[in-house]
Design brief:
With 70 residues, the protein is an all-alpha fold. The chain has three helices and no strands. α2 runs antiparallel to α3. The termini are far apart. Bound molecules: zinc ion.
């Protein structure tokens, strides 16, 4: 485990920041561990995507609702 893993798991880093940090410390990490960090980043990106799509779905539903009662 490195600092990037620790901070990702504590939600101290966004996936973007983690990718940048990985780029900076790439050479200091074991090849196997680079993949471990990447897996955490992918997981984080999934979580961020879920969060960003949820409100827009709710907004569309509300828009449809107000349209039908008008
Ligand atoms: Zn690590």
């Amino acid at each position: 485990m490195c600092l990037i893993c620790v901070e990702l798991q504590r939600d101290k880093l966004t996936s973007k920041e983690a990718r940048r940090n990985l780029g900076e410390s790439y050479k200091t990490l074991e090849e196997e561990h680079r993949l471990e960090v990447l897996k955490l980043i992918w997981k984080k990106e999934d979580e961020e995507n879920v969060e960003s799509t949820a409100p827009s779905e709710e907004g569309e539903w509300r828009w449809d609702f107000s349209e039908s009662t008008d």
